[in-house]
Amino acid sequence: MKVSTTTPLPEPVTTTTSEEIIPRSVLFGNPTYASPRLSPDGKYLAYLAPDQDDILNVHVRETSDASTSRIVTQDPSKRGIRIFQWAEDSTTILYRQDFEGDENFHLWAIDISQTDGAVKQAKDLTPGKDVKVSQVITNKRYPDEILISTNARDTKVFDMYRCQYRSGKDDVDVTLTLDTENPGNVIAWGIEDESNEVRFALVRNQEDSSNTLKVRDSVGAEWRELLTFPYGEEGNFVEFCNDNSCYITSSLGRDTKALLKVDLTTGETLQEICSNDKCDVGGVSLDEDTKELRFVSFNYARTERVFFDDTIKQHYDVLEEAAPEGSEVSVVSKTRDESVWVVAFSRSDGPTEYKLYITDSQSLQDLFVSQPELLKYKFAIMEDVRIPTRDGLELVGYLTRSKTEEATPLVLLVHGGPWARDSYGFRSAVQWLANRGYAVLQVNYRGSTGYGKTFLHKGDGEWGVGSMQHDLTDSVQWAIEQGIADPEKVCIYGGSYGGYACLAGLTFTPELYCCGVDIVGPSNVKTLLDSIPSYWGPLRNQMLLKIGDVDNDTEFNKKISPLFHVDNIRAPLLIGQGANDPRVKQAEADQIAFSMQEKGIPVEYVLYPDEGHGFARPDNRIDFNARAELFLQKHLGGRAEEFEQPKGATAVFPLLEKEKTSA
């Protein structure tokens, strides 16, 4: 089955944001409710919410009685819990936590039952220094055990361990049993549901950066190659079926990834089930027991679904009918028997609404709104737009405007990755900038994921001075030509790769931007790759193919690394960095900030000692955005809320410290 996406351009938007300044604390503080999850038996609903110290923790209530809500975790850090799930016993919460942004996430378990009113102590299921959890797999057929992928044996690779998480007393460590050892090149594992055995492995082949799907018939059987994707092809394993076949996604023989059914013994394609000429297969929904296909989703600019199950389609029809105008519907949690769903109604101009959906009666019950404080304000609508490039490609972008009658200062907000994408929805940073008086443009430049292998790999070797950056330049020119952007007031702003794109924009197209904001962006690609975490080792060769051989071509590295072109910078720059960032080390910010300072080029640099790759703590997030807001007001002319440093913010200023030392 083939699907064609033909999303029309929206009518011109005249809606603007609230006339009053929307407080940063409202936009960037913790949500009131987040990540609602039903226990498998449906008795309980768990969700994230702030505790008395405004730290996100897991709360649990009876699904049918909001008054029974209670906090069940006590995160000792100030970062809060952001990732959790139910174990299949319906009484255990599993959550992940790192240390001040180092991304060495441990897996913790806590029993939500109470003894004399006291919450039980959480148990660290993956103790040890530099231990990181990669995958956590639960199985309803085996409710007393979980499978955990972790690098406890060797920090460079992730083995699969079996854990009887309910064993032992509260003060006794739970023992992990090594189930499947990583030979050194496996980057993901998968199980077969009925046996709960590890029977799938995704292998990254170092010699040519191809990916191989490997399967085995049982734990004692030999691994065999099912299918190999040469570098440049995209695909992955989806699920085992009940008839010696499996579902995979694959771009072999086509441009975008299709959903296929494949023979488990021969690797032969039995059926091409669903595809789209403009974008890759996205989500795949299956019946957990029969493995029959329910629907496939695609996202060119907005989410669309192709249904294969009439009953599921009927349910989604009910949900779509009930959705507020402009909302997208998603199901975020279900009970084991699928009698109750948690449904999210997400829109671009307001907070997410969560409701319970009762499948028998096809009825909805209000649950809560993620950030009810946002309901007091008016937000701009996000438009999905199409932007032509100089060489004839079509880029999908998202435009959010504070005014539609005249050109305004523009913030080009560049997504990270770069092998990721922007999508439709409410974004606090976008609405913050729009409320301050700026048009905000987000662009899925070449190299972004989701648009097929050709579009993805058109970004290979195109960092900095190549077509990835040209796409951003062309997008700004488009906004100017459309009367959206004031050509004298354009800022490039981004995090991670978006931070690199900011630095590249200021160094390689200095005439285009009047200022830039770089958050955790690399300034020297060679030093970036030399300092990545050890567990990224299997991915490094493919990164070199996508970026270019900075290992062996010094001149190429200098060509694409903004650090070597600091003299070109004309516009002021604001840098934000986390001291514990394992991906883009502090040195990346230090070296370009100090170089600019020595050359007398305007630069501000804020460092947070207790953050990593981005700012997880609300106080730090609000603090940096307050500084960015004043920076943008100075150089773009928008409005700003009065600056007041949050009490818990930990900002330090390396450039000022260096000046003091030099003096």
TrEMBL record:
An annotated GO BP: proteolysis
InterPro entries: Peptidase_S9_cat (IPR001375)
Signal peptide range: none
Family annotation (PANTHER family): DIPEPTIDYL PEPTIDASE FAMILY MEMBER 6, SERINE PEPTIDASE S9 FAMILY MEMBER
Chain coiled-coil ranges: none
UniProt KW keywords: Hydrolase
Naturally occurring in which organism (per UniProt): Nitzschia inconspicua
Domain Peptidase S9 prolyl oligopeptidase catalytic intervals: 426-638
Full protein name: Acylamino acid-releasing enzyme
GO molecular function term, any single one: serine-type endopeptidase activity
